[in-house]
Batch of 4 targets.
Target 1
Amino acid sequence: MRGDAATRIQRVATIQNAAPGSIAFLANPKYRRYLTDSQASAMILSPEDASGWQGAALVTKNPYVLYARVAAALSPPPPFQGGVHPRAWVDPSAKVASDAWIGPGSVVEAGAEVGARCFIGPNCVIGRDAKLGEDCRLTASVTLCHEVVLGKRVLLNPGVVIGGDGFGIAPEGGRWIKVPQLGSVRVGDDVEIGANTTVDRGALEDTLIEEGVKLDNLVQIGHGARIGAHSAIAGCVAIAGSANVGKHVMIAGMAGVNGHIEVVDNVVITAMGMVTNSVTEPGVYSSGIPLDTQRNWRKNSVRFRHLDEMARRLAELEKKLKD
Amino acid sequence: MRGDAATRIQRVATIQNAAPGSIAFLANPKYRRYLTDSQASAMILSPEDASGWQGAALVTKNPYVLYARVAAALSPPPPFQGGVHPRAWVDPSAKVASDAWIGPGSVVEAGAEVGARCFIGPNCVIGRDAKLGEDCRLTASVTLCHEVVLGKRVLLNPGVVIGGDGFGIAPEGGRWIKVPQLGSVRVGDDVEIGANTTVDRGALEDTLIEEGVKLDNLVQIGHGARIGAHSAIAGCVAIAGSANVGKHVMIAGMAGVNGHIEVVDNVVITAMGMVTNSVTEPGVYSSGIPLDTQRNWRKNSVRFRHLDEMARRLAELEKKLKD
Amino acid sequence: MRGDAATRIQRVATIQNAAPGSIAFLANPKYRRYLTDSQASAMILSPEDASGWQGAALVTKNPYVLYARVAAALSPPPPFQGGVHPRAWVDPSAKVASDAWIGPGSVVEAGAEVGARCFIGPNCVIGRDAKLGEDCRLTASVTLCHEVVLGKRVLLNPGVVIGGDGFGIAPEGGRWIKVPQLGSVRVGDDVEIGANTTVDRGALEDTLIEEGVKLDNLVQIGHGARIGAHSAIAGCVAIAGSANVGKHVMIAGMAGVNGHIEVVDNVVITAMGMVTNSVTEPGVYSSGIPLDTQRNWRKNSVRFRHLDEMARRLAELEKKLKD
């Protein structure tokens, strides 16, 4: 730490738009050019950047993490008192901790358990026999189906659905017979899930979202899939049923992972990656065709349909020239 | 059937984790290795696998379908009684069958009709003049907009929206004018729709989801599209407006179907398939680039931008060698 | 205008299915063949098509826009009266205009403001201190989180979530630390958003959806992104955090835009386009591999893994032949 201990900080701000009274941070080198002129009253900086800033500073190897902690301390979610809003409905057989809050329009069904200090915002549904650990936060309009189990400190954004039926259908004579979805979903501690993401219940055994997993918005997790601890999955990714995704995996937006395959620990999949087979070694993996002008893309993509033929013709020429 | 008729089965289980008292099944050859040691009290098997199992067995050509039927019989959804929960709101002009259930927080608007034995879970919305056939099940938090029509035995998972406005906009002087969406949505018998899937109402004529169609989670069906009977569409697929998808079509996850095109009956589209033009013959169709290490992918994808040029250079060489 | 001023029109219809009493339109040349035999009582036509129709007609350069206006006039949304449904919950500190409607099951939290003539359908949530301009319409089951600001005439379809937490996580020792999301979302006038679309609140500064923007269903807008005025984004598109999308941009279905990049005004991205880098010139851009039979696709996509090697071998041959 550097600077006057009497400096008063009221809020966090971006380096380029900070006003006096705020603390900013520099984590991305792209923003280094704003450092000299920033109006922030204090800065969170790495040791390498510390010499570029004359004011009060918190110097740390990981400015982004320290910023996150400072921001959380300066802007905590509003406090709440335990209780059940008169417009909520809690089944008499449900157990709600006395210091948990059930918001207006929310429904807690028979046999459900809501742990200490949970905050259930408006218009949520906690299904029959679902169980929530301590300090969970369901912002609003979240739906947990029957028997879903959440660990502690789970944060669910609006529109999240956990425990809907998996896509289990069996073909018979040109029709689809529904396969009952009898498993549930178990969500570990410190999981955060983004708006309108869906996690299906297992067909027979539980779908697993392990501790520390972070899912962005509009992600689909199929029935019986496992997402290993501390993995992070960005927006609009789909993980098909019974996929086994390891720990510390990062999957960028709009990628797809096939069903019944494995992705080992410490794999990174880039945006729109098409994961059709198991990934058995840690590393960074990609697929897809980068953007081009439509005019160029049309010419090239037409040729893709003849790539195998081109390869054969190339080999033929090589053979001719060798002879 | 084979074995002691007095065998008591209480539940279904996977072949590898079955305990005594449960019945398991073997449909996927990958799991054959678990057969000998399974602790199941009975097994559902194909004739080819029957000799590998000494215990009680149900032998059938289609073990998965028989399993589905056994599971449904052993684990039916909990029974319910007809009635309107005191925290539901039903408009006086709506008609709700006496043996249908309207859950807490649900709203049934003016003129809507809810058929016999329907189960409407918590926090659903049944819009003005919507009509539900017999035995529909809306798990929770489902929204049906005005005038939407459901057939019989339709199952809608949480977060489903049917009948939102289609994406109808007309350009005028650099702005978009809204085109009123005056059609509705008709959903046939035995349709099942996954969590947070959206089906838009037609611009002028109705969007059609024909009987027996199964839609997974987070699927988008555009205005005026038709999904033919007994087709199955996996997670995160988008079907654009006025697309005409035939019967018995299977579309794997994250595929996209362009607007105003036709996909004939009995077509299969694999995952992430990009369907820009009509598919006029039954068969299996694919597109996309399979995953590779980022290092390899970069080298190859850069070359894609020059594929047309490569093809021309190849033809040039062939010409030279012919001369 | 052409024809008998006494002609009575009651509704709009498609050119091929119009009955007497309806007005149809011809905007797409594909439908010209239906013109002669249409039973419509009046037709909206371009000057070029006017001679092909003998009946009453509205002749205009932009038949689709005029049709939109006529349809809106003939089929306005049902009128409503101001008020709060007895089953809605409005916090005493919220301000709801006397001519706005709050539907059953909806919740308006502390400090929120709902402007004149707003229609809030059933089961919506208006978060703490959110502000809605005049004439907004939230069909049903919409969730606005705290402090979100809507302009005038904003139309939100069911399941829309605005202001959920952005995907802000910082890595520390193999775990993810949550980065508080302290910005909000500002939505301009005349914006329309489709069912189950999500717009995240900014990490520090607001996410911006400028005036006249149209978003289709299941679109994801990441934290701190900006969508410029009068841009239109089709279904299942994802725009990552801090992306800066210009004005009058059109993005077709399932395309993805990377974070922290810019797409300038007047760009068109075709369906499934993979926008990894900034697009700095107006124009039409594409990517992806068009559909083929699975058999052909397999042969070609295998070769893609060797495209760089093929290019080198081709260059090698060219060199040999030059020598």
Target 2
Amino acid sequence: MNSQQNEIRFQPDGIRISVGNGTTILEAAQRAGIVLNSFCGGVGTCDKCLVELQSQAKPVKACQYHITGDLVVTIPDSSRFFEQKILEEGITGTAKLDPSVRKHYLELTPPSLDDLRSDDRRLIDAVHESAKQSVEAVEPDISVEADQIDATGKSGAVGKSCERDEIALTIDRDLLGKLPGVLRENNFQVTAVCNDDRVFAVEPGDTSGELFGVAVDVGTTTVVANLVDLNSGKTVAVASGTNPQVTYGDDVISRIQHSRDKPDGLEQLHRQIIGCLNELVRETSQKAGIAAEAVYELVAAGNATMQHLVLGVPVVQIAEAPYVSAFSAAINASAQQLGLKINPHGNVYVMPSVAAHVGGDTVAVTLSAAMRHSSSINMALDIGTNGEIVLGNRDRLLTCSTAAGPAFEGARIRQGMRGATGAIERVHINDDVEIAVIGGGQAAGICGSGLIDALAELLNAGVIEPSGKLLSGDDLPENIPATIRRRVIEVEGRPAFVLAEKDQAKQDEPITLTQKDIREVQLGKGAIYAGMVTLMHVLEIEPDQISRLYLAGAFGNYIRPESARRIGLLPNIELSRIQPIGNAAGTGAREVLLSRLARKHAKELSVEMEYVELAGRADFQDIFGSSMMFPKP
Amino acid sequence: MNSQQNEIRFQPDGIRISVGNGTTILEAAQRAGIVLNSFCGGVGTCDKCLVELQSQAKPVKACQYHITGDLVVTIPDSSRFFEQKILEEGITGTAKLDPSVRKHYLELTPPSLDDLRSDDRRLIDAVHESAKQSVEAVEPDISVEADQIDATGKSGAVGKSCERDEIALTIDRDLLGKLPGVLRENNFQVTAVCNDDRVFAVEPGDTSGELFGVAVDVGTTTVVANLVDLNSGKTVAVASGTNPQVTYGDDVISRIQHSRDKPDGLEQLHRQIIGCLNELVRETSQKAGIAAEAVYELVAAGNATMQHLVLGVPVVQIAEAPYVSAFSAAINASAQQLGLKINPHGNVYVMPSVAAHVGGDTVAVTLSAAMRHSSSINMALDIGTNGEIVLGNRDRLLTCSTAAGPAFEGARIRQGMRGATGAIERVHINDDVEIAVIGGGQAAGICGSGLIDALAELLNAGVIEPSGKLLSGDDLPENIPATIRRRVIEVEGRPAFVLAEKDQAKQDEPITLTQKDIREVQLGKGAIYAGMVTLMHVLEIEPDQISRLYLAGAFGNYIRPESARRIGLLPNIELSRIQPIGNAAGTGAREVLLSRLARKHAKELSVEMEYVELAGRADFQDIFGSSMMFPKP
């Protein structure tokens, strides 16, 4: 573990990232938001993560290649998890590029005595005709929609747009007022923008090349926006920012309290998140060199509270027993009415959700992992302040939410911090403690993945007992070398383990793991584990029946599955079956932005998924009690 | 013809009207807006207009009973034209009471650990359940919808509401913000208001009894509003007012010019008609003793220009060759956005239209006369400044618009006036001239029906030649008695005929018919006649193949068909086949308000009706030239 930073560039994505020496290409790709296959658990046996390096003639395994210098890495679709998924499962929501928002450049015949159609009918007829031609051009048979597979998931197929139900295509009233003028001032050459069953804008000339959407993962802490070219399906810019609502507290409960306790609290929170979305739209469009007006749709996926706040809908009932949402259906809203600065006629689509504690982000994760189309049973886990779990297959999907606690996000950990520069993200104990620090400099704290690593290593070393007790002095096993032994010190009267010595020059205190920190992790991992076991009970399956365990979200991306399994955060499943799937909520939101079929699947998913309320279950309480222990070696 | 006024009260409508001695009950009913059957043309042979008088045991024929005193008249459904129509044609748009707007009173189960549905899902599930129960209660088999006939057209059937497409029922975003509060403040007992596929309001407690709509005939001159109870289908109040846009001119052209010439002209006209609609809503709701907020939908039928102005959509292209509308589809708009003071969540439905000169009012007329469902060929004529004509049957429907000119509305006639108090409305020539004046007092001018009567009688007497020349002095036939002969005077150097002597005490001048007045009528009736003949040419039929000629609108109601036929305004069709159908545009608008099936039919009609542009046709020009002559006796 060396602090030298290397510049890695991924192609064809065009994403750059800096990583320390020794990092594998698989890990680097994950941090860049690119999810590679790792069916063997990253041990180098499945050959599914092959990538090409500019410097080498033959492909290399991304999981086995340790970075020691700058690289340009080209990743074929066959090594990408979501693209591979399509081949594997045979059907997914992303089979076709078929966004809700479409553009049609039209050269209309001006009215004459022989053709006295009204402006609206003239326009709608032409849109129908244009849509029909696109379908005929690329898609001779459109009847196979739901079952046909597009191997790449990214073909240029433009079909099944506004024409699906000819009679239903309407023109927005607001547009009618402008229609006669726009047509006549532009010699009847205009671009119609339509959204499913309505034409909502008509633009002068040919603007059909400018058609973008934004898929946003609205996290309680971090908001990530993907600007997507709806003509090609490609992400053209990514930006993320801190949710400005954090000024009212880290977790959803504190936000809900603010909305309840201040007269304009709800409006404040609403305006803040809209402001954040506006900033991300501005940033991504600037990066991509497009106008924000060329963005016609924003898809928002988040937990129920965030989704309510995006729309400005009251949230108090989410925090009061028995905890219900104001809405769980997918909501379409006017961008303009929400004050969202995309095209003023643009649409905001908020993902459908399952329950007050299983939001649209979980639906998006489930969608992107194609769990609904799988015959084998899979499990998905998304850890944040809460841990949402989904378990099942195409026959039945269960979901629950556990109060994971903020430990894995660095909160309530004495020197905890988020996975930012200075955070210890990896811990290895051999003769002494080796750490990796994000950014490669001096350690400033410890983040979730470092915490799990540290616990796993200390459990293996025997410094921590299965009960969670941090041993000290004579209690420590005899075989522990002095290099480790001297790291057990006392902080505030209780044992603590020094992960990074203090830098004398800078007068920092050492970075330690305290007994209290360990207890916090036990609470969080116990709740998550108990949630997973409870769902397995309900589905009447054993862990070995789980074909694959997907780890979603930034956290799932950074932890070492081996360590997570060691501390009992994950059940005892073969490593080869544990697959980090990155920002799967964002991926699901992007699918929904790009495919009406995916949108339909999301809606169906949200209704079909069975919510298991853990609070009311005796078995959950029992399992939780015993789950706080760490597994024996 | 006597000027004594009698008070007639029609039951069960509850409408009162004052008429002069000698008026038939048929005529009185027409003026009250109630259309009776007159299959024999009012000659007393068909027995289809039987009504009951309080004073008589046996029913009397409305067409044969001449009023000589106050009366209470009860009209059975079997004598009413539109109700009879349903029996006759077997199918119409009014088969079922099935308004777009529905209410469901719901007593929701509050959320619990066993039932954690979100507020929106809880509400939608309950609406579905409520809708299903209503259907089951009154309508065991809902699959026959389009073909089943409801003999009364007014049964209390409440069915096929929001539940038609379960998956599509959504909740308005605006409502979501209020939903959690409204539910919890009202112990989950609320009334959901839905419109087809969306729930757009949720009201505290049970308000299901308060559900009203307004059907409006938006005329260029007069606007008539019917407030309808959507639970019973009954009209509960009627009000009419002058279209305030008349300050910018009598006809649509002058309105369009105003919109073009003034920077805010369009907005002015829009605001004026919205103001007028608001006044009529206020007046009708006051009469009925309900709150304007209990009105959830307004259906507007008018010519294309009026419909554009209701929505504030530009109209200049309607007046510029080749004359097209901005829209012809049916438009749904937010009442609140339009500034219409009904329920703020209410909907404004603007009728679909056919062409720039065949508006939603003509579609409404065609709908209410059930022409689309008739196997026999019928013709409808609606005379205003323009004359819209519809001809055909269920196989094919043609329509055109002719510039009738303003003569029949009293404009460009020297002493012309609208059909108001003081207008000569009937003229009969025997030994001398007998006139009937509206209101029974001194004649102040002549209205359209009086004009047609006068011309017909003077043609019969030989005072006017078929060329239209008004004879005077020695040119008059010898057999004309002195009582008539002395009425031919000179006005502004040309012959004129005195219809009413001047009242010396009041220094009024006599009411005369001038040569120029006659020419104006010739122009108008020639255009209408030529339009009718052109449509017959296109359909390749002769007048005797027309099963029925419907006269729509106030004018059609007041004229004597015999006189109209005599002057060649109407083709030579048996009187028994000519049927005034009253404010058929308003009736059509009411049907659309009350029945989603009618709404569907209107939409289909507007697309199916073939617009025949007369301006481009040589045959029309030829016929027009010869049509200005009066038929020989």
Target 3
Amino acid sequence: MKVIPHDPGKAEHVSTEGARGVRLTSLISENEGADNFAMRLFDVEPGGHTPLHEHAWEHEVFIVSGSGELRGKTVMPFAAGDAVFVEPGEVHQFANTGAEVLRFICCVPMIQE
Amino acid sequence: MKVIPHDPGKAEHVSTEGARGVRLTSLISENEGADNFAMRLFDVEPGGHTPLHEHAWEHEVFIVSGSGELRGKTVMPFAAGDAVFVEPGEVHQFANTGAEVLRFICCVPMIQE
């Protein structure tokens, strides 16, 4: 077992087309010995958003701080303490519509790789 | 896709032997359509702890607020913003050694069921 300390220096700018003001920190992956799913931390600046896209795997998300909108076929607001489930194949985007940084945990299955 | 709103009323007291002052809220499970892994929220009161136990599946944890100790073969402190990875078969316990409620996200594979 291991503690992975909070380390802002590990955050990487997300340069994927359609992403704006997004940083990703890998927390738990195969590098830590995980076989089934990975845990990542996202920070989205005010006005920023993840790409509006879809893919074959699900997202399990927990909003740590800030607030925003889940955009796809519909638009749903979310705030700190909420969870978000995106099923495989659903178009989705996480947008920061608040005044502070939006921080969330996003877990994905290894099946994607 | 769906937003699962924060709802303190959904928290359930954990009565497992060895647990003290622990409440569990299921956030994402098969009920939400998840097939691969589940996301749960834990609240541990000051002085409280999860059972000291082991099992055949891993834990992927993110500390939302508060601080404490990861106890097993060794003892490791953790605080808000840290992640914790417990491999299958490792003895482990999450203890709240701080003055405020310890809140963490814990994801587990469905394989356990």
Target 4
Amino acid sequence: MYDRIESAGLKGRDFLSTQDWSVDELETLFSLAAQLKADRKAGLPTRILEDKTLYMIFFDSSTRTRNSFETGITQLGGHGIYLSPDRMQISHGENARDTANVLSRYGEAIAIRHCAFGEGNAYLSEVAAHASVPVLSMQCDVYHPCQILADYLTIREKFGDTSGLKLGVAWTSAPNYVRPISVPQSLILMMPRFGIDVTLAYPPEFKLLPEIEAQARLNAEQSGARFEITNRFEDAFEDADVVIPKSWGPLVHTRDHDEGIRLIEAYPSWRCDAAHMALGRDHMIYMHPLPADRGREVTDEVIDGPQSAVYDEAENRLHVQKALMALTM
Amino acid sequence: MYDRIESAGLKGRDFLSTQDWSVDELETLFSLAAQLKADRKAGLPTRILEDKTLYMIFFDSSTRTRNSFETGITQLGGHGIYLSPDRMQISHGENARDTANVLSRYGEAIAIRHCAFGEGNAYLSEVAAHASVPVLSMQCDVYHPCQILADYLTIREKFGDTSGLKLGVAWTSAPNYVRPISVPQSLILMMPRFGIDVTLAYPPEFKLLPEIEAQARLNAEQSGARFEITNRFEDAFEDADVVIPKSWGPLVHTRDHDEGIRLIEAYPSWRCDAAHMALGRDHMIYMHPLPADRGREVTDEVIDGPQSAVYDEAENRLHVQKALMALTM
Amino acid sequence: MYDRIESAGLKGRDFLSTQDWSVDELETLFSLAAQLKADRKAGLPTRILEDKTLYMIFFDSSTRTRNSFETGITQLGGHGIYLSPDRMQISHGENARDTANVLSRYGEAIAIRHCAFGEGNAYLSEVAAHASVPVLSMQCDVYHPCQILADYLTIREKFGDTSGLKLGVAWTSAPNYVRPISVPQSLILMMPRFGIDVTLAYPPEFKLLPEIEAQARLNAEQSGARFEITNRFEDAFEDADVVIPKSWGPLVHTRDHDEGIRLIEAYPSWRCDAAHMALGRDHMIYMHPLPADRGREVTDEVIDGPQSAVYDEAENRLHVQKALMALTM
């Protein structure tokens, strides 16, 4: 039943960004995810990784990521170990090389979340350079590839063929802390490769990393999809099939936290409500990686309404990550 | 061997209080618990919940509850995930609705401990309202139903037929912090339903929630058991078969912490010693949910003595919770 | 395949120090460890402890110990529960007796790390006195027996017969905190019992517990091995087959933290570099339990060089501990 896993040739592959994987390789993953999802609904066992160990190192807190990975490896017959750097020797100065080498001798994969801007991706890359087992990103400062896999699987489930769909990715204003830019960056990188037209809307101070925006443009050109950036919130909604309004920090503009919060508070009208939803196509769905700041990013009416696909999207984290683990571990 | 589980019809049921379950349903649970206990002693496998996931959200610290649930799901072939709100997005303001919906998409049950007075039960109820998987109480501010299941199984093992037994539930004075009222409340609610006469003894400021005391009275009336409240410590011991002396806070009387501690310290003589034990029947057993404050709640002589059943009681947490999970998940 | 486990007669045995086990018993463990290691490389299942639970109580942080134990019990088909005293009732004053008794009723073994000087071993011993399941040391203030099992397995893999080999155990200067003395103490205790000549080198203020040094001398006399103590760093390297340069605190000399740090900083030249390595035999290997303070304890050139066996040594933690669990649980 899972006999294509071996022949997929992805055993041992790292997954730090979707950009490192070809469209064909990603298609293999989505196809396996769909099969694992169907088998779970049917109550079939899926002990593909029996007694194998996944290390999950979290530099930042998590609900969906931790639980979907740990439940996923459980359903595959293996075991996930939740690790906090503050309870590891990392807090005693152990370097990435030693951590990578030692964990590679014990278990079968190392998953890491490390969102500190300017640090996370560098840490993941250094672990990957030294590990002999696959290193899987659970989100860094630059990428959140597993989230985008789940987003894409959700879109495909709702619409079938994704070619020519319009996805709006819109910045929203959310208080209290400066959120990472990894989600919008990963969205604009991968979605155009699957033929999806992407409109990215943000206030001027909220631009993404120039090299990521450039790569997204290139990806769109190569696939024939459209990719455009705008400073008008509504542009992300108009005639869209899918909209993902989500807050992030002005990290490319300023590293100063207070100035970041001030800029976020300068655009309170960047909030998704029913009027915005009415700008899209009738079948338009609303997605958000969660947790959403209800009232500030989106109204309850929208996120709890009939167009919201947030729980389907969250569920798909489980299925795509099970496919990712089954293929690489 | 476990073929009655399916036909019990409890799959998907929440367990926030014993009051929500009929005596027949509770009997089914006790009977399964006894069978699971016997099978464990015999070394038989009990993989009833293979590769299923139990989420255990702890707002408060734990030894017995966490380890008995996590060991229990392991012995059933499944996996428990220990979750702390401070490491989840709950600390970023995620609401109960989102947590409930998302975890329902991944695993098979959500167990929660949340003892903050005036908050815990409300939180559990809200999660239960939105979850599509069973929500199991690991103690809230109002109820600690799993503890009482274990207590009852222990009493039945010691005495056989429980009808007409006398149980004394006595307040004790224990320093440093204000303990929840969930244990005595759950005791007085459930024990009379199984024909056990209950004497509840506390100083005047330590009364329980009026609606719980009223429900306990009603339960006793319906079953024909006696239920009485007294302000004299010794009343709980005299002619009793079972005594559970246990500290709790004057939460119904005052929410002020310092005033609570002052009131607790006003009754230092409410401590169980050998003289009190001599007031009961010769076969009287001493129980306590642990941790006990040795020296303040009880003398070492009693808790480590021949009448103490505290470790049998603690062990039964494992067996009743395995039955609970097997029936509901 | 694993039919000798039952007949080894070690079921239920505690493991707080290698000194409590005979050489024959330790040989049984090493032989099983080698077999488990070979079976893992061959991809064979080793479900010797199916659905059994190991409690891992960590009073101190850990990378290798936690992950090797938890991965090990996973590969044996069981489950490890990671416990922090600050999240258990231990933080509410629960005593060792109650913790030992309760966990003994639920699972199959209790592993503990507790390195606080003057407290750790006493705590482990008290738990062991009350537990009816085996208590396994994951390092205390006096012993780190699992580390030394891994060290010995590594030496045997590299050299075959270990009789007559020279091992240098050298103190090194490492900043910031006062490291335990359990590793050198466990090394000098066990290695002579397997015929290994040990040279222990430290500055005068860094002597080990007198009773441990005396026992090491006795062990050496009984086996015919040499054991010598010197205050010259180079003595540990000259003509050695194996060298383990590792920092520890002057705990026997002073309990004052600042004075300890001052003494550590008084010997900055006690650092292993290529020149020291050249003093040993050509085939000499470098080992360290990790985490090493790179630059202060050892140069990168040495620890990342061809003579370094640190990752093999770390890996062997997994295999010896799997053997330990399989034999005792």
